[in-house]
Each structure stands twice: as C-alpha cells, then as structure tokens.
Amino acid sequence: MVNFIISVSLLLFLSAKAHAEKVLFIGDSHTVGHFGTHFDQNLRFAGHSVVTVGSCGSIPRWWSNGQETNCGFFSKDLSGTEFRASKAPTPLMSDLLLELSPKIVVMEFGGNYLNYLDDEFVIKDIKKIVSLVTSSGATCFWITNPDSRNNRHALPRILNLIRKGVGSRCTLFVSSTVTRYPDVGGDGVHYWGTEGYTITKSWADLAFEAFLDFEILQRK
In sequence order, what are the beta bridge partners of 106? Predict the structure, then answer.
C-alpha cells in the first residue's frame, strides 16, 4: 500500500513537472519562515517558474496599500535570488500580477486575522484580493493558517471567514488539519527551531501534494 501511494505521488509529480506553470506565491510570517522556504523549494523542484514574497504580519490589505513589515521580509525571484530584511514595504499585488503575469497565485494567509474582531472586514479583505487575482486571469490556491497554541479556540472562526471570503473562486488547503503546535516552547504561533522545521517541512509537503492535485484538475 505504501509503495502504491509513493508511485501515485511520483506520477502526479512527473505529470505536474511536464506541465509546470508560472506561479506567484505570497504570504505572511509563515511564508517568511520555514514553511515558505520548503514550499518554494517544492515548486521550483517541480519545474515551476516561481516568485515568492513573504511579509511578516501581513493580511491581504497590506498587499494593496504597501504597509511596511517590521518583523521580517523574504523574497525569491525567478532566478532564485533571495532577499531578506527585518523591515520592508509590502509589495503591491497589482504590481506583482502585472510584472509576472502568473498562471497560478498561491496565497498563505489567516493567522493575522486572529487580531481582528470585525468579521465583515475579514471577509471583504479576502474577497478583494481574490477578485484581483481572478480578474487577472490567474487561478487561486489558498493555504490557510496552521494550528497555533495561542488562540487555538479562535481558529474555527477564522477558517469559516476564509471560506466565506474565498468562496468557490480558490481551492482551499486547510493547514490546521495537518499541523499541531507543540505544547511547550516557541511563542505559540511561529514554527521556528528544529521541531518547527520538521513540522513545517511536513506541512509544506502536504500542501504541495494538494497543489499538484489542484494543477491537474485545472488542466482538465
């Protein structure tokens, strides 16, 4: 059974590599961190032309007003050149779409909405960036926030709001179902250190498997 699963995964991978598309991958602190590094590597290994940009603390609104992050910025261009900074303005999504013309946009957001109590704001914020992406002609793959020890009780609410904002326009990968934040250590949110590296590697691999399935369905 295990060998069968591996064989299927390999076939999916080879099929995706043969039809790899240009991808824009954006997100918050998890994209700046281990998860973003792993997921970006998976995309490039599969043969995609990729631009990855992570802005710590961001929600989609930042990608329309250029709000500066003061907790970490990461980008990796088509050639694989990386840039990191503790502070940097968040790029405008409209500019990224115009410059890259991606076929697929992957967005990793959700955790920073835990600080927002206005449900309608969250839904509208998500709808706005999804509309921007889909109106450009790109398809959308949304990766939700992972499990967190802090505010774990609020995760179902945020997931529900994301579902409402995304609707049927993006394929959703629910990260909280494949992650579990350690009971001790860390800040309760970010997956750093050796244990965090292991968890995010698994998270990125599972999200990527779902992404491959999404790509195959898009071509049918």
Answer: 25, 141
Q: State how far the Cα of 10 lies from the Cα of 6, in Å rounded to an integer.
A: 6
CB 24 within 8 A of CB 100: yes
**Residue 44: enclosing H or E segment and its boundaries?**
helix 34-45
Q: What is the rounded CA–CA span in Å between residue 210 and residue 171? A: 9
Nearest residue to 109 (alpha-carbon basis) of 98, 120, 122, 96: 122
Which tens digits make up the pLDDT trace of 48-92?
999 999 999 999 999 999 999 999 999 999 999 999 999 999 999
Sign of the Cα torsion 177, 173, 202, 129 reads negative
For the question of whether the overall pTM of this predicted structure is more than 0.85, the answer is: yes
What pLDDT digit, counting tens, does each position of 161-200 carry? 999 999 999 999 999 999 999 999 999 999 998 999 999 9
